[in-house]
Amino acid sequence: MANSYALLTSLNGLAAGLFLMSSFGLAATRQMQGCQRFYITQSICLVVSAFLLGLGLHAPDLLAVAALDAVMKPIVIPYLLKRTVPEEIFRRREIDQVLNIPSSLLIALGLTLLAFFLSGYLPPAAGSIAAINLPVGLAGLFIGVYTLTVRREAVPQLIGIFGIENGALLCGFAIAPTLPLVIEMAFPFDMLIIALVIGILTRITQERVGTTEVGAFAALKEGASK
User: What angle do CA 92, 98, 101 make, to 5 degrees?
Assistant: First the structure.
């Protein structure tokens, strides 16, 4: 039994490490397709961690959430973005960003160190298997906020929001693994609606204004008022 728990703890640590690396990639990549791939990888790591925690902490709700997220995050949401967002956006070579890649990586590293420091002030994890989830999830949240801040276009900003949600869930699974299932299931469906709305607005902006920068939404409003 102890050996099984130690194995689950090691595998969860590996999933958390890959989650953190995907968060760094999400902040540093300048290609739309790469941005989406890092989000998919991050989501898969989140699903694996939820599954391992469900086994190690004997939390069947987490197993159900892992099954739901395995369908919604790496499959349904990227498919929805592909269907609603103009294809030329995914073919574009670079995303407009305020800071360059080295600066982004340094800031992401600083945010990670801050997250490991602040995680000591969070409520303790439900078990030792979930201890790594707290700092890594908080780091993913911080890096998601940074990604949302420095990106100028709607879809990359949306993926930054998804990164924030993934980081918050990774922390939440560790702190409250027995949270009622109906509450945990609400998050993926909220993200699904957000992806649909932003995807449609992005398509309209691209067709009418010729760009997907967030500032172009103001042009849509001005055009409608005239």
Answer: 75
Cβ distance 74 to 62 under 8 Å?
A: no
89-125 tens-digit pLDDT:
666 656 667 788 889 899 999 999 999 999 888 888 8
d(CA 199, CA 182): 26
Cβ–Cβ < 8 Å for 122, 138: yes
Please report, rounded to a whole number, the percentage of residues in the chain having pLDDT higher than 70: 73
Vertex 148: Cα angle to 183 and 102 (nearest 5): 130
Mean pLDDT across 153-174:
85
Looking at residue 63, its pLDDT comes to 87
The three state secondary structure string of 115-184 is HHHHHHHCCCCCCHHHCCHHHHHHHHHHHHHHHHHHECEHHHHHHHHHHHHHHHHHHHHHHCCCCCHHHH
Q: Write down the pLDDT at residue 218.
A: 54
Q: How many whole angstroms separate alpha carbon 45 and alpha carbon 170? A: 10
Q: Give the single-character DSSP code of 75.
A: I
Cβ proximity of 51 and 14 under 8 Å: no
Interacting residues of 87 by C-beta distance below 8 A, sequence separation 6+ = none
pLDDT at 207: 54
**Positive or negative: CA dihedral 79, 83, 88, 94:** negative
